């Protein structure tokens, strides 16, 4: 059975989320809602949906999301009971009516071959009067490294809500606790996949809301995003480098260097890693350019 976990905080679009769940053509799912000590009480709204959705509602006394979004996700996931697959849904995101039904229609295809299932998605941009984008679809089977690289190159979009993952993979790896949970989902998919491909369901969409108040849309948190990016490239991309093709590695290793420079100067150990990487890849021109940047940084 599928568990849909909602880390709740904002009421403004929550009814649209609940309505989309109540309209699912297949009801074989359970919803677990974790209230992050929100000042916006959803109790009256939940009362309206108690006979339409099978849900568990937990109010947490301590606000964790302001300190660590990942820790709040994890305590919400801890509410899940016997369900083996988990989707984390934003409290403002929307499922098309056939998301759960398509999940079960495809279940026998993926459940022994993949730890990650990805739905198609549309962007719901509140900065553009709620304009809905075209559907972003994906290869039916795809390596997690190739999936991330397509996003890195701006060829697709990706967000936490459009994925479902096995509880076993989550327990094995957990989430990386980066600032603002920026890149925490990217890191999760690289590790949760556990050498298995991602399976995509393209006939069903998640509508992912984007606004100036969302983490992605805010402009006053760039320093934290930059720090998270550095941690992500250091702890995840470098760790998983062998899963990327050589051309992909060259792009990613340069981005790793750039991500550090946005926050601070590179240390000698980091320059050494980069130089040895270019040498081992037989990229002499890139090695010489990197060596020059290294020398200039210590002047």
UniProtKB/TrEMBL annotation:
Record Gene3D superfamilies: Spore Coat Polysaccharide Biosynthesis Protein SpsA, Chain A (3.90.550.10)
Alphabetical keyword list: Transferase
Keyword Ion transport among record annotations: no
Glycosyltransferase 2-like domain mapped to chain residues: 5-142
Pfam families cross-referenced by the UniProt entry: Glycos_transf_2 (PF00535)
Keyword Kinase attributed: no
The name this protein goes by in its record: Glycosyl transferase
Species: Flavobacterium tructae
Taxonomic lineage of the native organism: Bacteria, Pseudomonadati, Bacteroidota, Flavobacteriia, Flavobacteriales
């Amino acid at each position: 059975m599928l568990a849909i976990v909602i880390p709740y905080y904002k009421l403004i679009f929550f009814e649209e989320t609940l309505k989309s769940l109540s309209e699912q053509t297949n009801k074989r799912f359970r919803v677990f809602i974790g209230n992050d000590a929100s000042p916006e009480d959803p109790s009256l709204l939940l009362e309206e949906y108690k006979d339409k959705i099978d849900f568990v509602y937990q109010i947490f006394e301590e606000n964790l999301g302001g300190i660590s979004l990942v820790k709040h996700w994890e305590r919400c996931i801890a509410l899940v009971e016997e369900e083996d697959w988990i989707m984390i849904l934003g409290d403002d995101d929307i499922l098309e009516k056939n998301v759960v039904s398509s999940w079960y229609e495809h279940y026998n295809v993926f459940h022994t071959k993949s730890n990650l299932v990805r739905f198609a998605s549309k962007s719901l941009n509140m900065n553009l009067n709620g304009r809905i984008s075209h559907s972003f679809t994906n290869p039916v089977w795809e390596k997690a490294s190739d999936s991330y690289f397509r996003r890195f190159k701006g060829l697709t979009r990706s967000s936490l809500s459009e994925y479902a993952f096995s509880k076993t993979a989550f327990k094995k790896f957990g989430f990386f606790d980066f600032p603002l949970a920026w890149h925490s989902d990217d890191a999760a998919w690289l590790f949760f996949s556990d050498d298995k491909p991602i399976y995509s369901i393209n006939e069903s969409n998640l509508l992912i809301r984007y606004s100036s108040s969302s983490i992605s849309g805010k402009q006053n948190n760039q320093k934290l995003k930059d720090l998270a990016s550095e941690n992500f490239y250091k702890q995840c991309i470098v760790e998983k480098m062998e899963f990327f093709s050589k051309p992909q590695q060259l792009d990613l290793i340069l981005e790793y260097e750039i991500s550090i420079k946005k926050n601070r100067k590179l240390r000698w150990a980091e320059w050494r890693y980069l130089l040895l990487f270019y040498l081992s890849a037989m990229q002499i021109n890139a090695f010489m350019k990197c060596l020059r940047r290294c020398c200039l940084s210590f002047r």
